[in-house]
Amino acid sequence: MTRLAIAINLDRCTGCNTCAMACKMQNNVPMGMAWNRVLNEDCEFEVGVQGVYPNISRSHLPVACQHCENPACMRVCPTGATYKDEKGRVEIDYDKCIGCRMCMAACPYNARVFNWNEPVRDPDFNYGDKDVPVRPKGVAEKCTLCKERTDRGDEPMCVRCCLSKARVFGDLDDPESEISTVLRERNAGVLLEEQGTRPQVHYFN
Amino acid sequence: MGTSTKFKAVAGVLGALTVAGIAAWIYQLMNGLGVTGMNNGTSWGLYITCFMFFVGLSAGGLIVASSASVFHVAEYKKVALPAVILSTVCICCAGMFVLIDLGGIQRVWRIVTGPNPASPLFWDICVITLYLVINVVYLYFMKSKKPGAQDKVAIVSRFALPVAILVHSVTAWIFGLEMAKEGWYSAIMAPLFVVSAMDSGLALLLLSLMGLNKSGTFKVEKKLISNLAGLLAACIAVDGFFVGCEALTMAYPGAAGAEMLAIMATGATAPFFWFEIVVGVLVPFCILVFARNRARMGLVAAASVCVVVGVFFKRVWLLLTSFVVPNVAGAPGIISGSSSAAHAGGVDVWAITSSYAPTWVEITVAVGVVSLGVLAFMLLSKKLLSKAPQSVSAGEAAEGGIAAKAV
C-alpha cells in the first residue's frame, strides 16, 4: 500500500503564504477560494501576535485537506464522489458531485471550498497545470495532494515552493521514506486528533 | 361549496408567488448558489432549515392519522384524511427544498446509479421516497369505495407510523451523525426531531382544520380540536424537556459544548433560541395546559401559530449555531467563496467566524415553495374532502344550522 502524505515543520514555517499561492496557481483555484491557507493561531488578525509586548509569540498553521485515513467527508457523500484512491489520497470525482455539501458539513478542518458561482479567475484564463481539471460551478473542491504532480512522481507544489523547507512529502507506508523518519524521530502530531479522522497530514517541530 | 371569489383570489396570489419562486430558482440555476447568502463557512442556510421544518410538519400529520388506525383512536379517524393530505403536501415541499439546495441538480441521478450506502443523505432520500409512496397509497385507500378498503387503511397505517417516525429520525441523523459539528453531534437529535415534528405537525394540522372548518370545506367538532390541543400540549412539554436535557449536557462540563451554548444563548443565534424557548414552548404550553383554554378556538389557534413559528426558529438555531466557529481557528479564518468574495480583494474575502443571512433569491424561492404547498393543500382538500362521505359532518352541519337558528 501507498499512503502519500505531507508533514509540516511548524518551527520552520514563517507564515509567508507561498504554499497557499503556489497551490492556487498550480491547481487553477478561482478567486475568492483557497485549497491551502495559513492560519495565525489564536489571533484575530492575520498580522496579530499572541501575548502582550514584550512577551509575545506567533505561530502559523498551514491547513489544507488532511487526507484522513477515516475521512468524514467520504463517509457522508451520497454519490461516492469523494473517494480514497490507491495512493491514500482523498479525491473528488467532479462528475459525480451533486453539490449537496454534506462533505463541507462533515469535514472538521473546513478544508473544502464550494464553487458557489461560475468560477472567476484573475487574470482571466486557466492559469493552472494543464492536467488539472477545470471545475464547474456547483461542485465542492479541495486539496488533491497535487494528484496530477504526484502521479508524475513530483512533489506537491506547496512542498516544492516552501521557502523554509518546512514541508516533507512522502509515503507513510515506506519506513525508509523521509516523512516516515521524521514522524518517527520528531515530536509529530495531527490536527483535531479527538475527531478520530486519523489525518495523514502531520505537524511536527 | 363552489369556487368562491375568495378562493380564487387566494389561489391567484399563491399562484403568482409560486411563479415568482420558480423564476428566482431559474435565476439561481443560471448563476449558481452564489446568489444565496451561503458561503464556505456556513454552507447550509434557509433551504436546509426549511427542509428540516417541512419534514417535521409532514410527520406530525401522518402520526396523528396513522395512530387513529393503529391505536384505534376513533375520534382521530375523522381528521385522518385532511391529516394525510397535509402530510403529503409537506413532504413534497421538503423534497423540493433539498433539490433546490443542490449545486449540481443535473447530476442528481448519480444517487440512483452509484449510491453510497453509508451516507445519511442517501438514507434520507430513500426514506422520504418511501414515505411519499405510503402517503399516496394511504390517500388512495382512504378515498377508495371498494369493499375492504378500510382494512387496507389499517394495514397501511401500521407501516405509516414507523416510517413517519423514521423519516424524521433519518433527517436528524444528517446532522446528528456529524462529529465535526459540536452542536449537532448528539444522540438526542433524532428524538428531538421526532417530538418537534409532532408538535409543529399537530399545530399545523390544527390550524389547517380550523381553516377548512371556516371555509366550509370540512366540518370538525370543537371537542376534537380541544382533544388534539391537549396532545399538542404534551408534545410541547416533551420538546422543552429534550431541549433542556441537551442544553444542560452541553453546558455542564464547561468545555466545547458550553462555548456552543454561549453562541446560542448570547451570540449570533440567541434571538432564535430565546424566541423558540419563550414563544415556541413556554407560551403555548401555558395556554394549552388548561382545559378551559383548549375549549377556546382563538387561543388554540394562537398557541398553534406560536408552536409552528417556534419550531421554525428552532431549526434556525439548531442548524446555524454549529457553523459559526470553525474547529481549527485562527486568522484569517475561512475564505468565503461567495459571489461577492470572487470580486472582492484583500481581507474582505476571509472570516474568522462565519455568518449568514438569506438573500432575496433564497427568500423568494422559499416563499414560492411554501405558496405552492398551500395552493396544493387547498386544491387537494377541495377535491378530496368535499366529496368525502360526509355522514358525520352533514349531521354536524345540521346541528350547526339549528344552533345558529337558536342563537
Notes on the protein architecture:
The complex is a heterodimer of chains A (205) and B (407). Chain A has a single domain, classed as Alpha-Beta Plaits. Helix content of chain A is 18%, strand content 20%. Chain A is built from six helices and twelve strands. Chain A has helices spanning 18-26, 72-76, 102-106, 147-151, 157-161, 178-185; strands at residues 4-9, 37-40, 50-52, 55-57, 60-63, 82-84, 90-92, 113-114, 140-141, 167-171, 188-189, 202-204. The longest helix of chain A is centred in the N-terminal third of the chain and has 9 residues, at 18-26. The mean pLDDT of chain A is 95. Chain B is mostly helical. Chain B contains 16 helices and two strands. The interface between A and B is large, with 58 and 59 residues.
Write a brief caption for the model.
The complex is a heterodimer of chains A (205) and B (407). Chain A is α+β, with helices and mostly antiparallel strands and 205 residues long.
Radius of gyration of chain A from CA coordinates? 17 Å
Shape of chain B: globular
Strand content of chain B: under 5%
In whole angstroms, the N-to-C terminal distance of chain A is 27 Å
Tell me the series of helices and strands of chain A, N- to C-terminal: EHEEEEHEEHEEHHEHEE
In total, the number of strands of chain B is 2
Supply the number of helical segments of chain B: 16
Strand order of the largest sheet of chain A: 10-1-12-11
